[in-house]
Amino acid sequence: MSWIILLLAGLLEVAWAIGLKQSAGFTKLWPSVFTAVTMAASIALLGLALRELPLGTAYAVWTGIGTVGTVIVGIMLLGEPAGLLRLVSIGLIVAGIIGLKVLTPA
């Protein structure tokens, strides 16, 4: 269950990163509120996952999910570049996330 909670925390990290972009430096009310709520929820879920998972693993996976998800959203919705080396780099992050999951009991 802690891995599912961690996955949700990572997905919320993607959500708040998108909200942060949409808030225009916290100058737009509702995107700013969305960002603050999803940040708090993401951190809270990370804290719950840390009850059973090692700190280094959970934090690395959480940030990895956030990084990969945010890059994918940036490419697909915001027109950011999807060059080969960028995609390979994202693949390496995914490989690291999988490696940490496989090598961590719980």
UniProtKB/TrEMBL annotation:
Keyword check for Membrane: yes
Cellular compartments annotated: Cell membrane
Domain of life, per lineage: Bacteria
Recorded GO MF terms: transmembrane transporter activity
Keyword Transmembrane helix annotated: yes
BP GO terms, sorted: xenobiotic detoxification by transmembrane export across the plasma membrane
Key words, A-Z: Cell membrane, Membrane, Transmembrane, Transmembrane helix, Transport
Entry's Gene Ontology cellular component terms: plasma membrane
Membrane topology: Multi-pass membrane protein
Spans traversing the lipid bilayer: 33-50, 57-78, 84-103
UniProt similarity note: Belongs to the drug/metabolite transporter (DMT) superfamily. Small multidrug resistance (SMR) (TC 2.A.7.1) family. Gdx/SugE subfamily.
Protein name stated in the entry: Guanidinium exporter
Organism of derivation: Massilia psychrophila
